[in-house]
Write a structure and sequence with these properties.
Length: 279
């Protein structure tokens, strides 16, 4: 009842799963991933135990292909299931049981696996594959989203749309470097879940993306004066502790603290500050 992509970034530092389905909260069931280890998707008549078991196998050095083969061989319900795994190196692997509702199938290659069941046809998986391979220039989460969007536009789940999700892990890539979940977003019930996932990923990037050092602007001269005025318009007067302190307080209230850089300002923060000040 689902189509998904599991993938590894070209440098091997990120692992992720993107999924969409005519099923409530597919993101609560399908994906699992662990930094430095790999990513897993279980679907059709999902076996949730596959998630922890596959990651445990990958952690010990078992390949994605062997992990899928081992899990499927030991599962009496395998004929009704789909499973996909990608590990730290090599090809991804995918399994589609012969009793999965048509159209059902999957493909895999170096660092990725795409699969789905109850789809409008094989063109959905072709679109996932082609978009993933063609959009290597995108940041990893946006590349996953591009592939999921392509699958959705190619027909997706033949029963319609309901949910979508994305899980991306990177060692110390989570909030303030205190966790590994770089992106963990779910659209549980929505008439156009992939588009809603795109909207949420845009907000996530604004709030939690790391500033690009090349675009940071020094808080001096006219820019410092403008930021001081803008902060005052939002009720944050610059006090004796200076502009940095006032800007840090405002960014914290706006959930933009990941983009705060002392003595400088991220253009994304500046534009949001201008909007908040009505400019």
């Amino acid at each position: 009842m689902t189509f998904s992509l599991v993938a590894r970034s070209a440098d091997g530092r990120l692992f992720g799963v993107a999924v969409a389905s005519r099923f409530l909260a597919a993101g609560a069931l399908v994906p699992a991933a662990e930094a430095l280890v790999g990513a897993v998707a279980t679907q059709a008549h999902a076996n949730l135990a596959y998630r922890a078991q596959a990651l445990a196998l990958l952690r010990t050095g078992v390949s994605a292909t062997d992990a899928v083969a081992g899990l499927v061989a030991a599962d009496p319900g395998r004929d009704d299931r789909q499973l996909a795994v990608v590990g730290p190196t090599g090809d991804g692997a995918t399994w589609t049981g012969p009793r999965c509702h048509p159209w059902a199938g999957g493909q895999a290659g170096d660092g990725w696996a795409a699969q789905g069941n109850i789809l409008t046809g094989p063109q959905v998986i072709d679109a996932l594959r082609d978009a993933w391979l063609a959009r290597a220039e995108l940041p990893f989460p946006q590349r996953l989203l591009a592939a999921l969007t392509a699958g959705d536009q190619a027909g997706g789940d033949r029963r319609g749309r309901q949910s979508a999700a994305m899980l991306v892990v990177q060692r110390h890539g989570g909030y303030a470097g205190t966790g590994d979940e770089l992106v963990d977003l779910r659209v549980d019930d929505h008439p156009d879940p992939v588009s809603e996932l795109r909207r949420l990923l845009g907000i996530h990037h604004m709030l939690f993306g790391r500033p690009d050092p090349a675009t940071l602007r020094d808080l001096t001269g006219p820019l410092a004066a403008e930021v001081t005025e803008l902060l005052a318009a939002t009720g944050h007067l610059v006090g004796p502790d200076g502009l940095d302190e006032a800007l840090a307080a405002w960014t914290g209230l706006e959930n933009l603290e990941e983009r705060f850089v002392p003595g400088r300002i991220d253009p994304i923060v500046l534009e949001h500050l201008r909007r908040c000040a009505g400019r």
